[in-house]
Design goal:
The chain is of the alpha/beta class. 31% of the residues lie in helices and 20% in strands. The relative contact order is 0.06.
Length: 842
């Protein structure tokens, strides 16, 4: 990544860039190591690849899969593994680091891995699949090392259905970033996700089983722990062997010694990134590596730049766990002050470190809620500008300041982009939105945690220029989604063509068409495939199924509250078996069937409808699921009937189209087994009634839902949810989740309470009536489609052959089911093609 950034910076030199040869040990071009964990959630090597145009420039020559083995400083040449010799004028070492393995017996056994490269994660994935198939049971995994990378690795293992434990030698997780209190809260959060944690524990031996693969760990106290796979994340070491062989000065702890200009002991040799040691430190983070890359490129081009030192800010990228650390997090500055907020019940710990006069922000730690990271990180070294409680308290103890960041404040630590540089992009380079600034400056291009701050700065600068930041839906409608919703509602227009003729221009696009389809679904209630509506839908809504990577579709019948009868399970099993579908239990307590071909969808749904199932709307921006625990029906801790309430809510809101997908959770007690606070609406039972939480979600920016109302009775709860959903549907932007919508509401949650419970806008009767209309006219979309021959004609693979399978589909068997074949597997001796085994010659 650092080498890639260096070349990018070199090429920005207004045509004056020299030619550059890039030699890499890995066969593939540079890729995003920061996002490596996303490989386990479906990202491919191509998805992780950095901008390919950089290495395709005429001034760049890229040589992959050919490790440099020696440097001849006298002749100014390097020799590679293939025997090739390359001359240089200036040599830049960007060899990074390598993952360490502990010096214990068995660390090299099959099943022991490090977590560093794409090859590493691909090997982990392949081993887990093979091992699980051979053992015929869920695997047990252990991550040795509880730092930032270790927790990401644990999340990756869990995503592979491996029972996981994290073993940490120090007294807390992420000990390099968090203090003891923050580490304690983080441990609770990690354990709540089903990942075991052992701190203060050292591994002394790894034992094999009869096949030679890893089977057990022995710890320093003599105890044993069975395991099937081990990942080491115990740190990295600078890859400085080339420098040592070339007699360049190297720090005793590793790393090529450099000065502030990134020069080594040889003026013709520079070092950047993790291989470099500056002032006694080598740091395994991408941000300082990028800063060094910029310095080195600027120097080579004749400019003046110096490396300012390391920025150790970091943010955990584990779904559902929000952690950030920045600046002087441990308050090592003399006379520094700590301001701390902690809520162990809800898993939140926040600490700001201030100067002795309590005015200058020095650093901080955020656990459980890192939403303020984007605002706080750029303020390090500057005046905080508000009572610290405004950044720490759940609803903001006081008002947050709306002042501007100083020009020198670093907004994007990954790319070292300052607030001043962003303002320059707006004023001098014509960037009018965050996306343009990102393309121009690289701010937000790596981890994305700074995008909120980038958007705010862009908005401030456009205001200075007298420009109004546009909230237009797209180029065809100058109105926002909220304004367009009101316009359609008042005008009572029922077709897209009439709407665009009256309120827009042109023929529409893939932004406004689905948005209008959603609005018409709420206001008119027509079937998604009726008339013009059919041409407005997204790919998934167009066939009422989720398209998969191989072009087939998934089928997800509704199971209200996760409840399903044995007869229903048998029916689903028979259907999946008859059509050769892959089945999986979803996180929303439903059964997903993958691999259905287009022409099979009506046949499958006919059988599901006959068995009493409805469409689960998994394909639409609509209510997906209402997840529940068993509540008081079965559980000895249950306070109220969580299942009954979940079923009631799902049947009430099924088919409800919205700006984004909607998820609800109902927990029967404070133990929160249904994870209700990660949902758009979370309902938790108390001794006095239901507590209602709103604005939660998972995804790239996970948020906990916040308490809107407490101790509601059944009818009061349903009335409040009715109004919340309808108010959101009417006023939110396109593709805006409830979390973002709640954060932008005038008055915040207090303002929302006034609308829903006090009728401050005088619209509650209208919201109630709108929800009543939705409930009354609900019709299952697939049941209606099966009755309509015109709609059924959409479900044909080929115009002239309605029952011919797509011959491009290929599958392999894995763990007793089928999955799509990879490109390589398609050329094996035999593969399953569209349900039939065919011989394929190489």
């Amino acid at each position: 990544m650092v080498a890639h950034r260096f070349v990018e910076s070199l090429l920005r030199g207004d045509g004056s860039a020299p030619t550059v040869t890039v030699i890499g040990e890995e066969a593939r071009a540079p890729y995003d190591r920061v996002g490596l964990t996303s490989f386990f959630t479906g990202a491919s090597a191509d998805d992780l690849a950095l901008d390919p145009q950089t290495l395709q420039d005429d001034r760049v020559r890229f040589i992959g899969d050919d490790r440099v083995t020696g440097i001849d400083r006298a002749r100014r040449t390097v020799r590679t593994r293939s025997g090739a010799v390359h001359a240089y004028g200036t040599l830049v070492l960007a060899t990074g680091s390598y993952a360490m393995r502990p010096a214990v017996d068995g660390a090299e056994l099959p099943g022991c891995f490090v977590y560093r490269t794409l090859d590493d994660v691909a090997a982990i994935d392949a081993f887990v699949q093979r091992r699980a198939a051979s053992l015929g049971r869920p695997l047990r995994g252990t991550v040795i090392g509880g730092g930032l990378l270790g927790l990401e690795a644990a999340g990756a293992l869990q995503g592979l259905d491996v029972e996981c434990m994290v073993v940490q030698s120090s007294d807390r997780l992420m000990s390099a970033q968090l203090d003891l209190a923050g580490g304690t809260i983080l441990r609770r959060l990690i354990e709540s996700k089903g990942i075991d944690v052992r701190t203060g524990t050292r591994t002394t031996r790894i034992d094999p089983d009869a096949s030679g693969s890893v089977a057990a760990l022995q710890f320093q106290d003599g105890s044993m722990q069975g395991t099937d796979v081990v990942i080491f994340t115990v740190g990295v070491r600078p890859q400085d062997s080339l420098a040592r062989l070339a007699d360049l000065a190297v720090h005793p702890n590793g790393g090529v010694l450099i000065d502030s200009r990134c020069r080594t002991a040889d003026d013709d040799v520079l070092a950047i990134g993790e291989v470099a040691n500056f002032e006694g430190r080598s740091v395994g983070l991408v941000a300082p590596g990028y800063a060094m890359a910029e310095v080195a490129a600027t120097r080579i081009l004749g400019g003046d730049a110096t490396f300012p030192g390391y920025d150790d800010s970091s943010k955990l990228k584990l779904s559902g766990v929000d952690v950030a650390s920045f600046g002087d997090a441990f308050a090592s500055t003399p006379n520094a002050l700590d301001v701390v907020y902690t809520d162990p019940v809800n898993g939140v710990y926040k600490k700001l470190v201030l100067s002795d006069d309590a005015k200058t922000l020095l650093g901080g730690i955020l656990v459980g809620d890192a939403s303020a990271y984007g605002m706080l990180r750029p303020l390090v070294g500057a005046a905080l500008g508000a009572d610290p409680a405004a950044y720490l308290m759940p609803d903001g103890g006081t008002a947050l300041p709306d002042s501007e960041l100083p020009a020198e404040a670093v907004v994007c630590s990954c790319s070292n982009v300052t607030a001043g540089r962003i303002r320059e992009a707006v004023h001098a380079e014509g960037c009018t939105d965050a996306a343009a600034v990102k393309a121009c400056t690289k701010a937000g291009a790596t981890c994305g945690s700074c995008l909120f701050a980038v958007k705010k700065i862009v908005g401030q600068e456009l205001t200075k220029l007298g420009q109004t930041t546009s909230d237009a839906l797209c180029e065809h409608f100058s109105m926002s989604r909220r304004q367009l919703f009101d316009a359609v509602r008042v005008s009572e227009i029922t077709t897209f063509s009439a709407i665009i003729a009256r309120f827009g221009t042109g023929r529409g696009c893939d932004i406004c068409k689905p948005a209008l389809a959603s609005i018409l679904s709420v206001l008119v209630g027509a079937h998604v495939l009726d008339g013009e509506n059919a041409a407005l839908q997204d790919t998934n809504d167009h066939v009422m199924a989720n398209m998969q990577k191989d072009g087939t579709y998934s089928v997800v019948p509704r199971m209200p509250g996760g409840e399903v009868t044995p007869a229903g399970l048998i029916a689903i099993g028979n259907i999946a078996e008859d059509y050769g579908l892959y089945t999986k239990i979803t996180g929303g307590q439903r059964i997903d069937m993958f691999g259905a071909r287009l022409e099979q969808l009506p046949q499958i749904w006919q059988r599901l409808v006959d068995a009493g199932f409805e469409s689960g709307q998994a394909y639409g921006k609509a209510l997906r699921t209402v997840k529940s625990c068993v509540g008081s029906t079965w559980c000895r801790y249950g306070v109220l009937d969580a299942v009954g309430m979940a079923v009631r809510l799902e049947l009430r809101y099924r088919g409800l189209r919205a700006p984004h997908k909607l998820k609800v959770g109902v927990s029967g007690c404070a133990r929160e087994c249904a994870e209700a606070r990660s949902k758009d609406v979370g309902v938790i039972a108390t001794e006095s009634g239901w507590n209602m939480y709103v604005g939660g979600n998972g995804g790239f920016s996970p948020r906990h839902a916040e308490l809107l109302a407490a101790d509601l009775d059944d009818e009061g709860l349903i009335r409040a949810i009715d109004r919340f959903f309808m108010y959101y549907i009417r006023t939110a932007d396109r593709l805006q989740r409830t979390a973002g919508w709640c954060a932008e509401l005038d008055g915040g949650l207090d303002g929302l309470r006034e609308v829903i419970f006090d009728d401050s806008l005088g619209i509650c009767d209208d919201l109630d009536a709108a929800m009543s209309v939705h409930v009354d006219r609900y019709e299952d979309e697939w049941a209606a489609t099966l009755r309509d021959p015109v709609k059924l004609r959409r479900f044909e693979s080929f115009v002239n052959a309605t029952d011919t399978p797509d011959p491009s589909l290929a599958y392999v068997s894995e763990r007793g089911q089928v999955r799509p074949a990879t490109t390589e597997e398609r050329f094996d001796a035999s593969v399953m093609i569209a349900g039939t085994t065919l011989e394929v010659r190489r």
